[in-house]
Amino acid sequence: MVKEFKNKNEWALILGGSSGLGLATAKKLAKHGMNICIVHRNSRVQRAEVKEAFDKIISMGVDFASYNVDVFHPEKRATVIKELCQELQGGKIKTFVHSVAKGNLKPMISKDTPHLKTDDFQLTIHAMGISLYDWVKDLFNANIFADDARVISFTSEGNTKAWKNYAAVSAAKGTLEAITRNIALEFASFGIRANCIQAGVTDTASLRMIPGSDQLKEFAVKRNPFSRLTLPKDVANVVYLLSKDEASWINGTILKVDGGESLS
User: Are strands 10-15 and 35-40 parallel, antiparallel or unpaired?
Assistant: First the structure.
């Protein structure tokens, strides 16, 4: 296997890299020689499982760092970046991946259950949208992006389609995409490329939090030309491709990684 990132002192910084798409991405990039830093939030109960996953990454022979903190807290973000500047030892962040899920999955109107309020929208939009800019801005100011860096975030088909209970997350995804486009435009002169990946329905912990997720999965399998769900490794493979030198001219777009699920 060609390890094109090995010995380049290049790093991937992955927010939410302890499970799902983020963890699959960390494993894929490490397999090709990229050093890995994961910022995550996990409980003590999850500690053993997370450690096992991280040990597998370390066994691939790359440098590794992790921070179990609230990625949305400004002071925690500042502390991580300050410590990361030392951890990199002169290295740079080649790939920054925003793979976080925090928000409210409530109906807009309901007689029997809590419904969405303005605060729910604000929390969700900040966590799943605006936080991308917060991190990119602070990493840029710390001067630790590589000369040819890639900013990658994850959106969903809910960016244009209405799903019950998904209004706040849908609004956040729209915000995420708008911010990505402007990062692609305004940071281009500094060598930073930014893109969103629109993954198909993927069986992750985040998906299972959505009311009616079993029906979503069943419908996705029926729609998909390959008659299966998208896998985390499918998405990780595309993050890897976007991180390669040959992908430098892909900027400011939304790439569908769904096997054709969204065609019908």
Answer: parallel
Cβ proximity of 46 and 75 under 8 Å: no
Domains of the chain by range and CATH?
10-257 (3.40.50.720)
Task: Kindly report, residue by residue over 168-184, the tens digit of the pLDDT.
Answer: 999 999 999 999 999 99
Q: Give per-residue pLDDT as tens, 28-74.
A: 999 999 999 999 998 888 989 999 999 999 999 999 999 999 999 99
Q: How many residues in total does the chain contain?
A: 264
What order do you get walking across the sheet with 35-40 strand by strand?
Answer: 64-68, 35-40, 10-15, 92-98, 145-155, 192-199, 254-257
Q: How far is CA 41 from the centre of its chain?
A: 14
- Spatial contact of 172 and 128, defined as CB atoms under 8 Å apart: yes
217 burial level (CB within 10 Å; 0-12, 13-18, 19+):
middle
Q: Is 177 exposed, middle or buried (0-12, 13-18, 19+ CB in 10 A)?
A: buried
CA distances from 78 to 75, 83, 132, 142 (A): 5, 9, 14, 10
Please tell me what DSSP assigns to residue 190: G
